[in-house]
Amino acid sequence: MRYINNRHKEPAELALYRENTPGVSYDGIPKKEKTIIRESLIDEQGYICAYCMGKIINVENCTIEHYIPQKRHETSPYSEEEHKKQSLLYSNMSGVCINNGDHCDKKRGNIPFEILDPHRASCEELITYDLQGNIIPSGSEVEKVKKDISTLGLNCKKLINGRTAALDEVWKRFVNEHERSSWSKELFMERAQFYRTKQLKRGKTKFHAYCNYIAWYFEYYAKNYKSKE
Predict the structure, then answer these.
(1) 144-170: average pLDDT
(2) In the structure, what pLDDT confidence band is assigned to residue 216 with cuts at 50, 70 and 90?
(3) What is the DSSP string of 46-93?
(4) Taking the alpha carbons of 52, 27, 72, 121 in that order, is the dihedral positive or negative?
(5) pTM to 2 decimal places
């Protein structure tokens, strides 16, 4: 999960629809406007899913997710009216992958989150990883984070395999490009920063799929690396 700061980047088309349409509702947003919203979301997110960080190729591979769901869950602290209101706010939206229901929004349904929120910078501080590709809680809110990881299915087999496969591909490229004699803590940290940053690819700025896991691995290697010299 990466922090997404989209609170002041609402597409004009969504604002116009919300302000000028009688009986406004999320389901009533025209297809063209929803496409514009999806395009805006995935561009901001660097073409990765807001939850699992898997690759999103284009708008056809993306759906709009609401942090506060469109429909109220029985355990939600918000009223049905507030859910309807939030469903039309861009700051409550994110772009997520389309999958078979094992993870992310399809796995979650409309269950409220305990603490993880891609619209808050703290989301990246609340999770870390292990060498097997699992996402694990970090910090003092362990039980809340565990529940949200489970709600989103972030440690399902498909995602663990995806993270480790992405890392294997990146690591092989790193080994081919850098002779062992050049390895250093500084080089590993430089690589970590590289994967925490969007890269220009075919006219779009994109993150590598599962970028935070890859960056974590290089940081882990930097902390534990011992030169043979």
Answers:
(1) 97
(2) very high
(3) TSB-TTT--B--SGGGEEEEESS-SS--TT-SS-HHHHHHHTT-GGGE
(4) positive
(5) 0.91
Cα gap 59→73, rounded to integer Å: 28
3-class DSSP assignment, residue 157: helix
The pair of structure tokens assigned to 60 is 């056809």
Task: Return the ∠ at Cα 43 (arms to 40 and 170), rounded to 5°.
Answer: 160
Q: For the segment 26-55, what is each residue's pLDDT rounded down to a tens digit?
A: 999 999 999 999 999 999 999 999 999 999
For residue 203, what are the CA distances in angstroms to 11, 94, 195?
A: 20, 22, 18
Left, alpha or beta for 203 (phi > 0: left; psi -120 to 50: alpha)? left
pLDDT tens-digit map of 95-142:
999 999 999 999 999 999 999 999 999 999 999 999 999 999 998 899
Contact between residue 145 and residue 115 where contact means Cβ atoms under 8 Å apart: yes
Report CA Rg, the chain. Answer: 19
Distance between CA atoms of 229 and 225, rounded to whole angstroms? Answer: 12
**Helix crossing, 211-224 with 157-177: angle to 10°?**
60
Question: pLDDT tens digits for 65-79?
Answer: 999 999 999 999 999
Q: E-assigned strands of the chain?
A: 62-66, 93-97, 127-129, 135-137, 199-201, 204-206
In the chain, domain spans: 12-224
Burial annotation 8-38 (CB, 10 A radius, 16+ → b, else e): eebeebbeebbeeeeeeebeebeeebbebbb
Instruction: Check: CB of residue 205 under 8 Å from CB of residue 199.
Output: yes
